[in-house]
């Protein structure tokens, strides 16, 4: 909503990829790594926290079946959230409530509360400005990281135990559980999955042919 996507697209690549990973979890109905409710913004509004050179925050709503709505993205420079960011989140939440009364048929919809809602492509990494090849790479890494996180949870492993099983350092496990996708290569994740006893497989297929 509004300039949320543009703000994220302007962020450093590591922040964009980590934010994309967290939003991807929300898209799949899973829980992001670092979030909190924001009732002061609106009912059902959550905040994702992405840590990097700066502290990035995203207000989002995932209570509706048709989409995850990102209300506002911003850099947080103080411990308390600025009133201006809270007010903008509230304004866009009100615009969302109003917009949902009507069927969204356009790629970009203008609400009567002077807020635009831009429909995403369904691929959050592409929407955040990554090239098609980068987006594909990040999607595969995202699936691998999610599989590793579920393995650790299912086995009830501590970070120290997981580090031994996966043959990595404990800080690497911490990066994994915090969703720091920018710090993992495909090779590293394949090795970790193999050490976890999980089978890694993939398919290559030509694109679907269009029908004239």
Explain the overall architecture.
By secondary structure, the chain is of the alpha+beta class. Helices cover 43% and strands 15% of the residues. The chain contains 8 helices and 6 strands. The strands form 2 sheets. The protein has a 4-stranded antiparallel β-sheet. A two-stranded antiparallel ribbon has the order 5-6. Helix 6 crosses helix 7 (170-177).
Average pLDDT works out at 90
Number of E-state strands: 6
What order do the helices and strands follow? HHEEEEHEEHHHHH
Helix/strand class: alpha+beta
Number of helices: 8
Global outline: globular
* First and last CA, distance: 35 Å
What fraction of residues sit in β-strands? 5-15%
Characterize the largest beta sheet: strand count, sense, and whether it forms a barrel. 4 strands, antiparallel
**Strand order, largest beta sheet:** 1-2-3-4
Provide the low-confidence segments as ranges: none
Tell me the radius of gyration: 19 Å
Key descriptive features of the protein:
about 45% helix, 4-stranded antiparallel β-sheet, 6 strands, alpha+beta, two-stranded antiparallel ribbon, single chain
Topology:
Layout: H1 4-9, H2 13-27, E1 35-37, E2 45-51, E3 55-61, E4 69-76, H3 83-99, E5 108-110, E6 116-118, H4 124-127, H5 132-155, H6 159-166, H7 170-177, H8 186-195
Antiparallel strand pairs: 1-2, 2-3, 3-4, 5-6
Helix pairs in contact: 2-5, 5-8, 6-7
Quick overview of this protein structure:
With 212 residues, the chain is α+β, with helices and mostly antiparallel strands. It has eight helices and six strands, in the order ααββββαββααααα. It is globular, with a radius of gyration of 19 Å.
């Amino acid at each position: 909503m509004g300039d949320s996507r543009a703000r994220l697209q302007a962020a450093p690549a590591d922040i964009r990829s980590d934010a994309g990973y967290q939003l991807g979890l929300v898209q799949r109905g899973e829980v992001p790594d670092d979030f909190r409710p924001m009732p002061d913004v609106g009912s059902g509004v959550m905040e994702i926290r992405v840590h990097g050179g700066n502290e990035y925050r995203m207000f989002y709503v995932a209570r509706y079946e048709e989409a995850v709505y990102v209300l506002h993205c911003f850099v947080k420079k103080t411990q308390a959230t600025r009133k201006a960011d809270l007010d903008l989140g509230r304004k866009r939440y009100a615009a969302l409530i109003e917009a949902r009364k009507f069927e969204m048929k356009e790629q970009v919809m203008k609400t009567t509360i002077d807020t635009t809602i831009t429909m995403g492509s369904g691929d959050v990494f592409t929407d955040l400005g990554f090239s098609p090849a980068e987006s594909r790479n990040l999607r595969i890494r995202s699936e691998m990281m999610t599989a590793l996180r579920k393995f650790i949870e299912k086995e009830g492993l501590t970070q120290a135990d997981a580090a031994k099983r996966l043959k990595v350092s404990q800080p690497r496990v911490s990066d994994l559980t915090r969703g720091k996708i920018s710090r993992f290569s495909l090779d590293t994740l394949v090795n970790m999955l193999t050490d976890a006893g999980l089978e890694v497989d993939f398919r290559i297929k030509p694109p679907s042919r269009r029908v004239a």
